[in-house]
Structure formats: structure tokens, C-alpha cells
Design brief:
The chain has helices spanning 3-11, 15-24, 55-58, 64-73, 78-81, 98-110, 116-125, 127-133, 140-148, 151-167, 195-218, 224-257, 320-331, 347-355, 384-393, 396-402, 404-419, 430-455, and strands spanning 175-184, 192-193, 271-272, 279-282, 288-298, 305-311, 337-339, 359-361. The protein has 456 residues and is an alpha/beta fold.
């Protein structure tokens, strides 16, 4: 290194430092004509001071984070604590309180935070998250594992919250609305491969795993931790490609079942090697992207979310009956009226709803010459159930009830997509995506009915 350069750099001032110093300490205001300089209070950021204050004193009493902690403290989290192995009078490191982890993810969902890394940073730098943690250190591995590692317990928690709202008489399931939204999956379009390419990827992954095993046998002591990490990554790669081949078979079978026109050009079946459960779906912008289909059911009176289902099928026509059945199983109550949009139109769905003694409010599509009021006239080949549905949807009463769908389902979808973390999934697999959707629905209900839950 040039010694002269070091010497001159030490003597000459840094021009960027001068700019920074002038920005932090601007020149005083010039006095006006025949006047003294004004006396001003200027910021003093280099003053050292000691402040005696606890975290509890720094968070206002009406802050939302306090409500989250109070609501979670009033819920039964036994299912989350059951897997903990560290018990009193036994060996093992103390586990993190499930109340803290549940509160963190609920508050993060309210804050539109759905990344474990971002949440870990907020726990260190944001006062509200610091207040929740109360000096308990957390890393993103712990946060991410908890978010998607307690699916049954999370589903039970959603049922518990819904039960309290129903017990308080605030939420009813006699009439429900249902709508779906496509949420972008954590998989790139380039990860979708045909069967031939998937078989090549599997052969390459298995060969790489065999090479790692051979190197480990040659020198077992050389970089044991690094070898173990490499082998785990290679085994995961093999497992994902194998799951992708199974997913490809499912996609090909479904496409064959839906092939109603043999002369229509069929695109080759593909599956993703990074997220085999994801499927390419038509999105709201008209394009096709890897996504999941999130179904939300709500009560049009209270605007509460009463159920969540996630699937990887792009069509909604077969999803109305499973939603009703799940709601009735979850709540123990019977759904009497079901409101859905045009994406659920299916004559079979009308028949099944009538068999379940459910009034289905579903728009009658305009096809061919059946436009305007004519579409409400029964067709000659209609069954009595389908004919009654057509006539019913033409009445002003049915149109008024159907109008409740846009007032509730559409606004709820916009809320959870924009503010509750359902803009895009960062987790992979149906089970983990279902957990992420449940966190968003729980956060939505807590925001709107938190005070009621405390009084229940």
C-alpha cells in the first residue's frame, strides 16, 4: 500500500465527512436586517442521558399489542404446549412460552408481517414487539417452525375463537357467504417441469446423493458438520423431486378427466420441483402463476370469518359443499343459506345443496339465448330442484340476499390480501399454506372482535 497516500489521507479532511457533518449540523440562520439572530431550540443528538423506564411504561395502555396479549392470555393453548418436552423437575432447556409465540404471529399478521426473518428483526428493534418478547430472545428458525408446525392446534384455536363469538351471540352460521382468492405461491414458473425433465432431475439428485455418501465413507471425519448439511440438502432435493413426480401424475390425471373436447389443444402437464403442491392458476390480473386457492367463508351480518380452506385446484365449482360440511363439523350448527358467486355455478351443487336442505343463492349464468330475464325460466330438461333454483334467483328477495356477498366476501378478501399477510405465501406445501391462512383469519377476527373475546 502507498505510504504517502496514507499520510496525505490522514492530513486532508474527508469531503464526504464534511458533507455529512454539515447536514447534521447546519449553519445557523442569518439574522435579518437590523435584528439579532433568533433564539431556537435545535436538536442535540450527542447528549448522553440515562432514562429509567420499563418496557411496560413505554407502551401506551390503549396500544393494540396489549389487546393481543390479553386475548391470547384468555384462550386455551394447551394443544400448543402439549409437545413441549421440558417439564418441571426434568432435564432440558426451557421452552418458549406458546402464549408469546401465538401473540407474536397474531400481532405480526395484524401488522402485515409474514416473514420469520422480518419478525425476528422487529423483535429486536420495534418497541411493540420488544414489549411482547419481554427480554425473551428469539430467532427466525423458532418463529418459522412454530408458525407452520402446529396445524391441528392452530385449527383448534380458530374453532375456539369462533365458538366464543357464537356463544356471545355475535356470529351466526345459519347464513354464510363463500369466496375464494388465488394467492401467489412460493415457487417460480420456471420450476414447473414435464415428466421427462423431472425424471432427469431425479436421476441427477440421486447421483449427487450417492457421490456425497461415497465421499463421507472415504473420510468420515473431514468436515462432519458440513457433510451432514450437504447430505440433508441432497436428501431433501431427492424427496422434493419424487413428490413432484407424484404431483405430475395427479395433474395429468385431472387434466384427462376434464378433457371434454378431444380436438382441443392440451398443454403438457407440469409440476414444480420446489413446491410440488402448487399449481398454475389464472390470477386476478388475467395471467397464470403458481398459486393456491384460499377459500374463506364468512357471516354476512357480523362480517366474521367462520372457516378457511386451502386447496390447489383452480376451479371453485366443487368447493361449496366441502365448506358447508366443515363449518357444520366445526360449529355443530346447520347452515341454512349459502351465498356464492358465479365461479361456483354447478347444477350438481344445486342438487347437493337441496339434498342437504340448504338454500343456495348462486347466480344463473347467461348462455346462448338465455339472457336477461329469460335465464330465470326453467329449461325443459331441468330437474325440479334446478328449476326451483332458476325461478328463485329471479325474485327481488333472492337478489337482495345475493347482494350481501359483495358487501362481505369481497371486502374480507381485500382486507386479508392487503393487510393480513395473504399477498403471497412464503411457505411451501398445502399443510403450511393452510397454517398461514389460518393465522391471517385469526388476526382478522381478533382485530374486529378482540374486545368481545375478552368479555366472553
Amino acid at each position: 500500500m502507498n505510504t504517502y497516500r496514507l499520510f496525505t489521507d490522514a492530513l486532508l479532511p474527508d469531503p464526504m465527512a464534511a458533507v455529512s457533518a454539515s447536514a447534521e449540523n447546519p449553519a445557523p440562520l442569518a439574522p435579518s436586517a437590523n435584528a439579532q439572530p433568533p433564539r431556537l431550540r435545535v436538536p442535540q443528538r450527542d447528549q448522553v442521558a440515562m432514562r429509567y423506564a420499563s418496557l411496560d411504561m413505554l407502551v401506551p395502555p390503549e396500544h393494540l399489542v396489549r389487546l393481543v396479549w390479553q386475548v391470547v392470555g384468555a384462550l386455551d393453548l394447551t394443544a400448543f404446549a402439549a409437545p413441549i418436552k421440558a417439564r418441571e423437575h426434568g432435564a432440558g432447556r426451557d421452552a418458549t412460552d406458546p402464549r408469546l409465540l401465538v401473540s407474536l404471529w397474531l400481532y405480526a399478521s395484524l401488522d402485515n408481517v409474514y416473514s420469520g426473518r422480518e419478525l425476528a428483526e422487529l423483535c429486536e428493534n420495534h418497541l411493540a414487539y420488544q414489549w411482547l418478547c419481554g427480554e425473551v430472545s428469539l430467532n427466525y428458525h423458532t418463529l418459522n417452525d412454530f408458525r407452520v408446525g402446529h396445524g391441528p392446534a392452530l385449527d383448534e384455536l380458530f374453532t375456539q375463537v369462533l365458538g366464543r363469538l357464537m356463544q356471545g351471540g355475535l356470529v351466526q352460521v345459519q347464513r354464510i357467504t363463500q369466496d375464494g382468492l388465488r394467492v401467489r405461491a412460493s415457487a417460480g414458473s420456471g420450476s414447473f417441469k414435464r415428466k421427462e425433465k423431472l425424471e432427469v432431475c431425479l436421476a441427477e439428485a440421486q447421483a449427487h446423493l450417492a457421490d456425497l455418501e461415497r465421499l463421507r465413507q472415504q473420510d468420515p471425519t473431514a468436515g462432519a458438520r458440513r457433510q451432514a448439511a450437504q447430505q440433508a440438502a441432497a436428501e431433501d432435493r431427492v424427496a422434493r423431486v419424487q413428490r413432484a413426480l407424484v404431483a405430475w401424475q395427479e395433474v395429468a390425471q385431472n387434466k384427462q378427466e376434464r378433457q371434454d373436447n378431444p380436438t382441443k389443444r392440451q398443454t403438457p402437464s407440469r409440476a414444480s420441483i420446489t413446491d410440488p403442491d402448487a399449481r398454475k392458476m389464472k390470477m386476478a390480473n388475467g395471467g397464470f402463476n403458481p398459486a393456491y386457492n384460499v377459500q374463506l367463508a364468512s357471516d354476512p351480518e357480523s362480517r366474521a370469518i367462520v372457516d378457511v380452506q386451502v386447496c390447489n385446484g383452480g376451479g371453485d365449482s366443487v368447493l361449496s359443499e366441502p365448506m358447508r360440511q366443515q363449518i357444520q363439523t366445526r360449529t355443530g350448527r346447520t347452515v341454512g343459506e349459502h351465498i356464492v358467486d358465479g365461479g361456483y355455478v354447478s347444477l350438481a351443487a344445486v342438487e347437493r345443496a337441496a339434498a342437504d336442505q340448504v338454500i343456495l343463492y348462486m347466480p344463473v349464468p347467461e348462455r346462448g339465448q338465455n339472457v336477461g330475464p329469460q335465464r330465470f325460466f326453467p329449461h325443459p330438461d331441468d330437474s325440479p330442484t334446478v328449476a326451483a333454483w332458476r325461478v328463485r334467483m329471479g325474485t327481488p328477495e333472492a337478489q337482495k340476499i345475493y347482494g350481501l356477498r359483495a358487501q362481505t366476501a369481497e371486502t374480507i378478501n381485500a382486507d386479508v390480501r392487503t393487510w393480513r399477510g395473504l399477498a403471497r405465501f412464503l411457505v411451501r406445501g398445502l399443510a403450511k399454506v393452510q397454517c398461514a391462512a389460518l393465522w391471517s383469519a385469526l388476526a382478522y377476527n381478533l382485530l374486529h372482535f378482540g374486545r368481545t373475546l375478552l368479555g366472553a
